[in-house]
Amino acid sequence: MNDETTPENAADVAAEAAAEAATQATAQATATPAAADPLSAVADAMQSAASSVTEGAAAAKNAASKALPTVGLFANRLVYTTCYTVSYGVVFPLALVALSVPQNNALVHGLVDGSRAARGKVDEILGGRTDAAEAPAT
Predict the structure, then answer these.
(1) Do both 110 and 57 map to the same domain?
(2) What is the pLDDT of residue 138?
């Protein structure tokens, strides 16, 4: 920019100053009625606040409706993965030990008989099935 003041620049500066003064006068003229009626200003402010709260509540509801399915999917996946890991961690070592023990000996017969007795007692407590229903098919 050029800092020299020429007659053309002086006219532009004067025009800009006049435009700014007119803008300020217009702003004061429009502000004067609101200042003259304070109840109107308060009513406008309350209406603006109410509409802002309504818009904020709608936006929050919209965001929650989008986030809730995502949270549900995450929780379902977390529960599934946890149950899968625990069951695998329990079943795999037990199956490995059970399959590595020879089947036709006193240890295996004792485990099988103990398992049948335990299932029978649970059925008795819960009022469930009889031993005939538990007999394995041969």
Answers:
(1) no
(2) 45
- Please state the domain count of the chain: 2
Under 8 Å between Cβ of 40 and 34:
yes
pLDDT in tens, 98-114: 788 788 888 888 988 99
Instruction: Tell me how far apart the alpha carbons of residues 92 and 84 are, in angstroms, rounded to a whole number.
Output: 12
Amino acid letter for position 105: N
Strand ranges, E, within the chain? none
- Pairwise CA distance, residues 49 & 52, whole Å: 5
Give the position of tokens 């709260």: 53
Q: Same domain, yes or no, for 96 and 117?
A: no
Sign of CA dihedral 106, 108, 113, 117: positive
Task: Give the span between the Cα atoms of 21 and 57, in whole angstroms.
Answer: 41
What digits encode the pLDDT tens for the residues 15-25? 565 556 556 55
**CA-based nearest residue to 129, from 121, 115, 112:** 121
Res 5: pLDDT: 47
Name every residue whose Cβ is closer than 8 Å to that of residue 3 and which is 6 or more positions away in sequence.
none
Q: Are residues 96 and 110 in the same domain?
A: no
